[in-house]
Specification:
By secondary structure, this protein is α+β, with helices and mostly antiparallel strands. The chain has one helix spanning about 50-85, and strands at about 5-10, 15-20, 40. The protein has a three-stranded antiparallel beta sheet, with no helix packed on it. A hairpin with a 5-residue loop joins strand 1 (about 5-10) and strand 2. The longest helix is centred in the last third of the chain and has 34 residues, at about 50-85.
Length: about 80
Amino acid sequence: MPIYEYACRQCGHTFERLVMPPATSAEVAPCPSCRSADLERVPSRLSVSSEASRQANVQRARKLGTKEAREKEVADLEVIAHHTD
């Protein structure tokens, strides 16, 4: 059961629907925003995963984790400094 993306021609709202094949546009539920049945199926964005993209995500997460750890350490030191005064 694929998930398709739709755009409402009446209000411009975009949304996703899980569609049972073989479904026609007349069988798709109406727009959740304006309830219009005038829908257009739009191409979905493609997601590609590779070793390089996974490594980049891991490095980005580690960098963010290091920054958050540093900020927490500074905040902890400030709390200690204010409680000893």
